[in-house]
Amino acid sequence: MRKGFTRKPQGDEPGARGKNYITPSGLQRLKDEHQFLLTRERPAVTDVVAWAASNGDRSENADYQYGKRRLRQIDGRIRFLTKRIEAAEVVDPETPRTGQAAARAFFGATVRYAMAAGDERVVSIVGTDEVDLKRDHISWVSPLGRALMKSAEGDSVVLDAPGGRQYLTVLEVRYERISVEPFCEPSGSEASAKGLHHRR
Description:
By secondary structure, this protein is an alpha/beta fold. It is built from 5 helices and 7 strands. Helix content is 36%, strand content 20%. Strands 5-4-3-7-6 form a 5-stranded mixed beta sheet. Strands 1-2 form a two-stranded parallel ribbon. A hairpin with a 2-residue loop joins strand 6 (156-161) and strand 7 (164-175). The relative contact order is 0.17.
């Protein structure tokens, strides 16, 4: 590809950052998934591919073709997780803070704010690998996360959202444990099904 057709990431894009800010429980979730893929899922899929390859013609063998494709997906995910874990900068929200660091919203803060209509919401500012909108965990690089960063109780902030500009009032900033949903083995994984339908 010619250099004229490539674009360097801007300073505020995730690709430009060297650090992966993350909470301790978020890092543990990444490590658990990495360990599962490396020690359980990949070996189980490798066994299926070896079995399928022993059946003869690989060009029309769906188990073999699917297994090889699944191995590529697993290897890609393992590489991604390895890079994210290596770049992790752990920030513990429970670490005692003093002065401005305790009063202002930074990474790991739980912020209660009111919208112009009076509706109140509480969000926790977490890393990009920990976003969970059901739990109101937002990324520190999201539009809302950026708007709330460095704000303190009583501040008015402007949120430039895709739906238009909104004005928010920060009601409370606190730092407490942020629980991230732990990694669970997927129900359709080859490792969980290995004992049920492994063909030999």
